[in-house]
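Deliverable D4.2, example record:
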Amino acid sequence: METPTMTIPSVAIPPSRYPIAADNYHAHYPQLNTSVSPGSFGGPRSFETGSPNSILSSPKTEDSPIYPSGDFMNGYPMFNWSYKQNQNLAMQPIPPLNAFYRPRRLEEIAPRDTISLIIALFFDFVYPLTPCVHKPSFLADLHARREERDPLFFALVMSTVASTLVQVPRSYLPMERPVVRKLAQTCYEASRHITVGSYDPPTSMHVVVRYFDCVYHFCEGHDATQHAAFGEAAHIAVTLRLHEESSYEGLDPIESEVRRRIFWLLFGADKSMSILLGRPICLRDEDCTVHFPKELDDEYITPSAYLPQPHGKTALVSGLNYTSRIFALLGEILVRIRVDKRSPPQGQFATARLEEVQSLHSRIVAALSHAPEPLRLKQAHASSPLPADYGGAGFRQATFAEVKDFFDNPNASRANALNPFLVMQANLYVTQQLVRFVIEQYRDELISSLQGSIDEYHLAGDREAVARDLLNILHSIPIQSIATNGPSLVHKVRFVASTLLDAVRKAEVAPASAARAHAFLWDFLSILSEIERNYLLDDDRDGTSSDGMMMG
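Output generated by the structure prediction step:
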């Protein structure tokens, strides 16, 4: 006997009018302009004139589809359906994920000259810290309008633009802040719409796009979305086996180096978030066999060969390599701290652990001793006591004026901000002091557990040394070079300064010089907070709410 079957009318599902961008679900994020225009992306826009056409505009449909007959629902009265027989209900069309995956023109988003200006700013100010595209081939592809043939390259350009707009000082952009913010949001959403349906097969370009998206959300204060973007980037990287050296066999030089660079950028960001936010480590050193990128500038990396770097010319990527070594040491100490927290070592095991930690301390102190000359710090003051000009109203006023000029004056000197090695010095040496501080903290905990107590005066002296060295670094690098690092550097200094200040308050015995060093460091942190505030594109935020942490 045959079982009766129910026939449900088939309904064609046309393209959707639902935007995919996650941020717009939240009421506290700016709402999209939902004006509908022909074509899924709308026509060319001019941000200078505030054109409402949006890349998120959805195709019009002539006929609204209807739901199938309600007969099949009548057997379920417990749901209390308010459903009238033969009633036609409007249905929002839902497109396939690949509906947006087609070639685009940059002019659909902004004038090509505007995009070109922003890309130039990326290579001047952002690229030295995040060299995850190959400059010659990227610019050649842009000149050849590759984005009009390759949707994924269009997405890469969009994510590059979005992350650049939130990282460069606003005086460098001939636009008002609301216009900059709207353009950054539109570029991010354009990239997201294109890439969300194109994960298979994964490519290194997907990883770079998601890394840039992560930076964009970090700077905009979208904390959960930032971490989601990082998770995508990290797991696509693992899917591509970027952490395994064997996966690089047979790749051309450009692809190989882009993969190495983006992996180590993710590796560093992972360790930053782990220490500053207390998050689990995602990319563990013991799982990684991949080598560091070759220390070659992009013009010496071609599709078919590696060309020799000119003698005496330091490659920009050397900054990333030294930062990655420092983050690898941070990963080593974090793993030990967390294992020991779960199962504290006792007796000879604690002694053995202390020896390991002291070895890590020696390695972090010497981590930059062999850095090439352009990356070496020219310290203003290498000895104690701290100079009086490190504090006081005069220093603060002069430095605040420099910061204001840097962010507000289009004609201000950019020489120090354009010196990539000075910018990288700030990142390198501040990160080194952060890792040194974490190692010393745990070393002192182990000594205290082994000996039952610790010399408070000696401990205060160690803390003073960290504060003094960090101050010397910050005073030895031009404020414009520090400012170019953006909010990520501020987070690192704030972490050390706040922990040191807490230790000073709790200490019963401490030299007066220690309190003075910490006071000077806190003064400098107020300057860094002003730098952080100037990167905000939203006037309603004060820079204190974000819990995110990115960048190497």
